[in-house]
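Figure 2 data, in text form.
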Amino acid sequence: MIARSLRQASFGLLYAFVTVFLGMNANEHEYKVMGLAPHAKDEDAERVLARMRGIICPNLANPLVFRSRINTWDTLHFLDDQFHRTRFDHLAGAAKRLSMNSWSTRSTRLSPAQSSSPTEFS
């Protein structure tokens, strides 16, 4: 195994809890969150993203591993505390940008040898 991210830094949990926070079913309607994302204006999604930064991001020491400033099992509480009256499209846009920014940061930090190797995530 080359790298392993902890469940406490899980994009799957992040999307599941954003989905639940928006009133939909986890593990069933995440595609709707992704579908809502383009409807947010750039400046609105960026404003929400600024408050979400660091929830999940690549580990600077090893870009194959993600880390989180909160346990993603607590994401629902975080969302309720930080985004209680935030429009659903703004939150969906920010969640998509968070994942895309993290993945693009991760991929640009990998060497060619690393990027062709398989990776296991938990």
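Caption note: The CA atoms of residues 4 and 120 lie 6 Å apart.
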